[in-house]
Amino acid sequence: MSSHSDLRSFLAFLAERHPREFRVVKQSVSPRWGISAVVEKLSQNLRNPVLQFDSVTGTDWSVVTNVCASLSRIARSIGISTRDLEERLEAMYHSPISPHSVDNSEAPVRDVVLSGEEVDLSLLPDTRHSAVEQSPYVTGAAVVAWDHQQENLNVSYHRMMVVDSKTLAIYMVEGGHLDRIVRENATRLESTPVAAFVGAHPIWSLGVLAGGGREVDELSMIGSLLDAPLQVTPSLVDERILVPARAELCLEGMINAEELVDEGPYGEFAGYAMAVSKRPRFDVQYMSHRKKPLYQEIIAGHLEHLTMTGATILADLNRKLTAEFDGVLEVHIPAAMTLFVRVDTAVMAQADVQRLIEHVLEKETYVKQVSCFDRDIDLKKLQSTQWALATRVQADRDFTLVSGVAGTGMDPSEINGTTTKLGINATAKPSLEAFAEKNSIPQDVLDTTDLKKLFE
Predict the structure, then answer these.
(1) Residue 339, domain extent
(2) 111-123 burial, b if ≥16 CB within 10 A, otherwise e?
(3) DSSP letters spanning 227-279
(4) What separation, in Å, do the N-terminal and C-terminal C-alpha atoms of the chain show?
(5) What is the pLDDT of residues 55-70, one digit of tens each?
(6) Is residue 296 domain-resident?
(7) Does the residue 63 lie in any domain?
(8) Is the Cβ–Cβ distance between 393 and 429 less than 8 Å?
(9) 179 and 90, same structural domain?
């Protein structure tokens, strides 16, 4: 079995080839903040191994987290370099590979099937990761739905709060793909059948997070990243819906946009708690899983969450911006909802830099702030970007504000669901070549300075 068959083979690959990057915790750990405390402590020591907790109080299930915390680790698991994986993330839109369907009898995710009154969400680990959370959450679920408008499948990640043994409250960003599918079905007085799978090879997760419109087929994006068809099996609630046959857990049922339940509070990726609000109800009709299932968790706001979303957003933005604008050299996401773009103003006129800023603010839902820098600025060094912001910007000339834009719902500064976006042109005006010369030491002096001789 190859290392990219499923979550289990990914873990086996790490155990055999990179044991320091995969740790199994045998001691008893509480699912209520205990798991996230271990992740936090390791992160403070600059360590982010994949973690498997085999003795979680209150459940027979093992919990796995940090699966997507390292892009390099993910790349190695399928035998390629990090750069090759980044290129695949940009190229996958042009080379989709459709999934291969197998019967449910052949799918490990159907080893155990519970239906109707047998469904019991209390069997899942009672995981909580932020101090504000009062109910367990399913954080690692990718939700699959049939899109009537596009006549294809939509797959996307959504947090889900356990309401009772058969009910979840699902959070969908307003205007997002799944939200629109559910609302469109509601106009036909129809509920939306969905299947939420948990326990994925990290390559699957990157494919699920592919950017673009509703026409994007995420299951085929996974195939493109794998360079092979993803093995899937039909849903038990709607045969048009397909789920990975080798997932660990699948929760299937109906979402009704008109039936709302309380959801929250929850500590989201931006680092703030989201308050209690009304969300659509997800009634679970089927619960299937593998023998001795692994329950995958994604802890909001920690490295894994930022890596898996950042890698795919960057690839999508780089693909779109380099196609739309000559002179885009690099894109970087230094923090939540923040985009840095390095441009070559020898190629891109100032009017084009402004057009790029306006384009991003208008088109990119998850970007609240965008700053453009010259080619001499290192986007990953705070001192470099702050220096450019301080010495190449006049706020009355170089700031662009776009008000009254729909927010994501995850930014606590939003007012009545809207936000104001900011663009900053931090390039030298009128051009880098015509700007004040940077302080520097003559290169020949640097070349002939030998520290070893000086300090012998």
Answers:
(1) 325-425
(2) eeeeeeeebebeb
(3) TSPPEEEE-SS-TT-EEETT-SEEEEEEEEEEEEEEE--EE-TTSSEEPPEEE
(4) 56
(5) 999 999 999 999 999 9
(6) no
(7) no
(8) no
(9) yes
pTM given for the model: 0.83
Handedness of CA 63, 69, 71, 76 (dihedral sign): negative
Q: Pseudo-torsion of CA 383, 389, 392, 394, nearest 10°?
A: -160
- What is the Cα–Cα distance from 401 to 385, expressed in whole angstroms? 20
Q: Rounded to an integer, what distance in angstroms lies between the CA atom of residue 127 and that of residue 313?
A: 27
Beta partners for residue 402, in sequence order: 421
Of 43, 49, 86, 47, nearest to 65 by C-alpha is 49
Residue 440 φ/ψ region, left for φ over 0, alpha for ψ in the -120 to 50 degree band, beta for the rest: beta
Q: Is pLDDT at 22 greater than 60 in this prediction?
A: yes
Identify the bridge partners of residue 77 per DSSP, sorted by sequence position.
Answer: none
- The CA distance from 219 to 222, in Å, is 5
Task: Based on the fold, state whether residues 185 and 232 are members of the same structural domain.
Answer: yes
Backbone angles phi, psi at 256, to 5 degrees: -120, 115
The two structure tokens encoding residue 107:
């799918």
